[in-house]
From TrEMBL:
The lineage of its organism: Bacteria, Thermotogati, Deinococcota, Deinococci, Deinococcales. This is Peptidase M3A/M3B catalytic domain-containing protein. Gene3D superfamilies: 1.10.1370.30. The keyword Hydrolase applies. It comes from Deinococcus carri. Residues 170-559 form the Peptidase M3A/M3B catalytic domain. It comes from the Bacteria. Belongs to the peptidase M3 family. Pfam families: Peptidase_M3. InterPro entries: Pept_M3A_M3B, Pept_M3A_M3B_dom.
Length: 570
């Protein structure tokens, strides 16, 4: 454990000079001063890309280090200084560089840069000087969410636990244990609720001002342009919400009704429903395939070796400081994959406690890591790596499915059947949550109007929760607990980013459907699409992965039918 943490600290180390603007300024000034002709653009872009990668890597490492030490004031202050002193200067200078590029006479971008060039143009049109400093405020506000939640403790049975440790008790087959854990988590969440409420009101005001500064009526309009959502509209999202309500919620209710009947439950109470890990219908103990982070790494290594030698080698390279898996106090409780572009290295942060859900999440986050590796190998320019966000969850979610046939060393045949069933059920359980998260944000930033109160947010969340999770019985419980379901990471730190999970989960099921018949071809499509990075439009990326870019009612209905068939096979 200590050796692992020491390796992580080495990886995340950022020299002091890389936290100062004067380190980068001369190189930016040289780019600005260059006599730029159409023929000179490619070399100029290469130099700019390398500089962007260095700044981006420093930002990523400082942010990750802050997430691993939420209670360390010095580490938090170092990151805050970088946000305040370096990033605003970078944003201003990069706007000037973009304008310089767009003004080059006779320049026609190469095919693999054309899409990025168009995005540069659109971003330049959205830029406002007033949003530079306000953006720093916004970043600092979002970072406060990690401080509030990273230091959160749960008191359960006289023991002080981290949130992931307490959530592990929710997997118990003993209903009394689950209920006790749920109440303890609810009490802990209510304890930090006032701070999160106050923070959200600040964020709403800041986000609205960002939109107004950009001469746009609301934050949804601002984010639609900032996120480059050119392949679908808010109306398409509304149609998705309605399709999930009509096509998926009844299936989720059917699954939960069957589970409740088999377990002899009078109703599905909040402590009986964990969308990430539904109850075992036979009341068996939750699967516990490992104990330590090192054991999780080992079992994943073997699974990747069974899947693909190249991917296995990529994962092996991450095991020296690019994985921080175990839960501990002071560490933010979310899981994510970070990226360090100079070395083309991904970094995975998790909070594992020994569950089968941890296995799934590791494959998910390492799928992101593979995206970073493969797009970084294929795309020299840093802006062409990764992909548009409508695709970025496909590498992660598809990896959850592609590893299903390579876990015989982890689970017995019976256990593997349970794990597989939970994976399929998890898609059905996730889609209503995704629709609810997206619908809430559309309401919040485009429909609710000004002068919102926390009571308004709570009331809307309750309304949506009753629509998308009608099968969970809250009778006799404090509805203020249910109303705070919007106190979720993405609402605070990744605004308007959630429907992409649903799009990509649907695509991941499509990739797995191909893999059921031709695993080698499905894997080849998967890897080829990752190498394209951000050089082609979203629909073309989906086609490269062997699926369609669709999330309409008919498509969702067909995939739900496929999932029902697979679950029936067992």
């Amino acid at each position: 454990m200590t050796a692992t943490l020491n390796a992580v600290e080495r990886v995340l180390s950022v020299p002091d000079e890389q936290t100062r603007w004067d380190t980068y300024a001369p190189r930016y000034e040289r780019l600005l001063a260059a006599d730029l002709t159409a023929d000179a653009v490619p070399a100029w872009l290469t130099e700019w890309s390398a500089l962007d990668a260095e700044v981006g890597q420093a930002a990523s490492k400082l942010a990750t280090h802050a997430d691993l030490h939420t209670g360390d004031e010095a580490i938090q202050a170092r990151y805050a200084r970088f946000l305040e002193e370096v990033l605003p200067q970078v944003q201003r200078t990069e706007q000037a560089l973009t304008e310089k590029l767009l003004a080059v006479p006779g320049y026609v971008p190469a095919p693999d840069f054309a899409l990025t060039y168009r995005r540069f143009r659109d971003a330049a049109e959205l830029f406002r000087e007033a949003n530079v400093d306000l953006g720093v405020t916004h970043e600092a506000q979002m970072n406060r969410h990690g401080v509030l939640t990273g230091n959160q403790k749960v008191t359960l049975g006289g023991e002080e636990l981290t949130v992931p440790q307490a959530k592990q008790r929710m997997d118990s087959p003993d209903r009394a244990v689950r209920e006790e854990a749920w109440h303890a988590l609810a009490a802990s969440n209510q304890g930090i609720a006032p701070g999160l409420d106050a923070l959200m009101l600040e964020l709403i005001r800041t986000r609205q001002q960002l939109a107004w500064n950009a001469d746009l009526p609301g934050y949804r309009d601002f984010m639609w342009r900032r996120l480059d959502r050119v392949d679908y509209t808010p109306e398409d999202c509304r149609a998705f919400h309605e399709a999930v309500r009509d096509e998926v919620v009844p299936l989720a209710a059917e699954i939960m009704g069957d589970l409740a009947a088999r377990l002899g439950l009078d109703a599905v109470r909040p402590w009986d429903y964990n969308r990430n890990n539904l109850l075992d219908p036979e009341g068996r103990e939750a699967l516990k395939p490992f104990t330590t982070g090192a054991q999780l790494e080992d079992l994943a290594q073997t699974a990747f070796e069974g899947l693909d030698a190249d991917l296995a080698g990529r994962f092996r390279s991450m095991r020296d400081g690019l994985l921080d898996l175990e839960s501990r106090p002071g560490k933010m409780t979310h899981a994510y994959c970070q990226y360090f572009p100079v070395q083309n290295e991904p970094f995975v942060l998790m909070n594992v406690v020994g569950t089968s859900e941890d296995v799934r999440v590791l494959f998910h986050e390492v799928g992101h890591a593979f995206h970073g590796f493969l797009s970084g190998d294929a795309q020299p320019l840093v802006w062409n790596r990764w992909s548009p966000i409508e695709f970025v969850e496909i590498p992660s979610m598809a990896m959850e499915f592609l590893t299903l046939d390579h876990l015989g060393h982890v689970f017995s045949p019976e256990e593997l059947a349970r794990y597989r069933e939970k994976q399929l059920q998890g898609v059905v359980a996730f889609l209503p949550w995704a629709a609810q998260m997206d619908a809430f944000q559309h309401w919040l930033y485009a429909e609710a109007g000004e002068n919102l109160t926390i009571a308004d947010l709570d009331a809307k969340w309750l309304e949506l929760d009753k629509t998308f999770h009608p099968f969970v019985n809250w009778d006799g419980l404090d509805e203020s607990v249910r109303a705070k379901g919007w106190h979720y990471y993405h609402i605070f730190r990744a605004p308007f980013y959630y429907i992409e999970y649903a799009m990509c989960y649907l695509a991941a099921v499509g990739i797995w459907r191909e893999a059921r018949g031709n695993p080698a071809q499905a894997l080849a499509h998967y890897k080829a699409s990752l190498r394209l990075g951000s050089t082609v439009p979203v629909p073309e990326l989906y086609r490269a992965a062997g699926v369609e870019f669709r999330f309409d009612r008919e498509y969702i209905r067909g995939l739900m039918t496929f999932l029902k068939e697979q679950m029936a096979e067992g």
